[in-house]
Amino acid sequence: MEESIEGARLHTAEHVFARALQEQGLNIHVRKADTYRPDNIGKAYVKEIIPFEKIMEAEKAVNAKILENLTITEENFENLEEAMKKNPKLRFNEDRLDKEQQVRVVTIGQYDFSACKHRHVEKTGEITMFAVKRISYLGGETEIEFLAGNDALLFILQIKNEVIKVAMDRHFIPEKLSEYIKNENERIAETEKEEKEMLYRLLENDSGLILLKGVKISKFYGELNYFVKAHPEKCTGITNGQQITVIKGKTCSTNLLEIGEKIKALGFDGSVNESSINGKVNERIIKEIEGLWKT
Questions:
Q1: For the domain 196-294, what is the CATH code?
Q2: Which part of the chain is CATH 3.30.980.10?
């Protein structure tokens, strides 16, 4: 399959990006660069965790090299040793390169020298723009998605417009977005703490089945577990009308298997065992479940 010009932009940008990371003192090893994709999204998989700040610094460096419009050349060498004699700063992937075979070196100005067989643009200016789209850390690696050309421009414009819209809705200036998010996260954390304390007080007063509307049940698992450990004679549960979670203390006499069979007959879709009930529930049967619990 013929390699596309969009892929050539992405792959050339990936070379500059990798060098920009190394220029910050990182001894990175790009395990794989996936740039010739139908969705025109480049991916680089790096064998270490790269801090966010260094990735952003490298993004700036790539766009600076794009503005310099550096010339890109290719040269073939008989083997890796010959290539490294002429290019001491040569980058190459040892896992995928046969040191005895012919090596093609792609040179970007005097900035980067890399062994590569893929198509590249002739000057860095043809990349137009480079933008990091997503970063994820998994299994000790960093996966970075990036864009080039018009895709990068449109992405930057989209993000800018979304930030401005949020700023207008929330009545703050875009430059203070990070400060606003920090304050909002602190407010949410404080609210969640108050909610959990309130639930615990409810459990102490009434350890039956408690209906909490409009909440995510999973964030209260800790409080339920803590409550039955502190009160092993109790059996308690919460529901939001769409999901139900019931936990039983070690010395509690309530028969959850019996209750579970009854609510399954009503249409409950979830798991039931001797110590817990958990799963989806239809809001129309909540009243019936509450009635079963009370009896």
A1: 3.10.310.30
A2: 5-170
Rounded average pLDDT over 144-173? 91
Q: What is the CATH number of domain 5-170?
A: 3.30.980.10
Average pLDDT, the chain: 88
Tell me: the pLDDT tens digits for 132-143?
999 999 888 999
Residue among 242, 207, 211, 240 at smallest CA distance from 224: 207
- pLDDT beyond 60 at 89: yes
- Contact (Cβ atoms closer than 8 angstroms) between residue 205 and residue 194: no
- With beta carbons less than 8 A apart as the criterion, state whether 244 and 281 touch: yes
CA distances from 248 to 200, 210, 235 (A): 15, 14, 4
Contacts of 73 (CB under 8 A, 6+ apart): 106, 107
Model confidence pLDDT, tens digit, residues 211-238: 888 788 888 888 889 999 999 998 888 8
**Domain(s) of CATH 3.10.310.30: residues in the chain:** 196-294
